Amino acid sequence: GEDVEQSLFLSVREGDSSVINCTYTDSSSTYLYWYKQEPGAGLQLLTYIFSNMDMKQDQRLTVLLNKKDKHLSLRIADTQTGDSAIYFCAERFTSGTYKYIFGTGTRLKVLA
Amino acid sequence: DAGVTQSPTHLIKTRGQQVTLRCSPKSGHDTVSWYQQALGQGPQFIFQYYEEEERQRGNFPDRFSGHQFPNYSSELNVNALLLGDSALYLCASSTRDRPQETQYFGPGTRLLVL
Q1: Is B84 on the interface with A (CB under 8 A)?
Q2: B104 at the A interface (CB within 8 A)?
């Protein structure tokens, strides 16, 4: 089935690291993505990882992929108040199309 | 280089009415996908258009239909609106020439059905 799961809420203090987790179902997914959505806005692509990679680092963002457990995580180092938003993970089906399956989103609240 | 644009930004309709939402893809993109994002949920795939044809469809009723024009822009039509159709409708564009490239999303159209 098509199901991507995320925890609903995460609260961290400014300057700490945030780790947002996601589990997906399609073992053949080629690409996995992290998007950020601020209130009233559309989706902003943060980063993505190919399924043949275990880790990808992009400035403050680190993505870890565990294909065996179908687990994806996003670590945000030195979390800032501007990072407060909803974070969605998404898997892209490998059917040759661009159909993305999104998780329900994790609301990150950064406390000053 | 303009990104994905959508119009209108907001829309209010009543039950039973019909609505048309519009999307212009990012320059160089030829594929348009539509998503529905209900409040507190992640986006749900509605359908995708390429070469002016619907190529793939999610679990949405026939009340949801679309169109793609020769310039790659697209419309989403919803007939016989229900209260449950209230949501943010997102358009995303991509290109089949570069399958490794990700989709880019527009800002969305927020539809409220009363």
Answers
A1: no
A2: yes
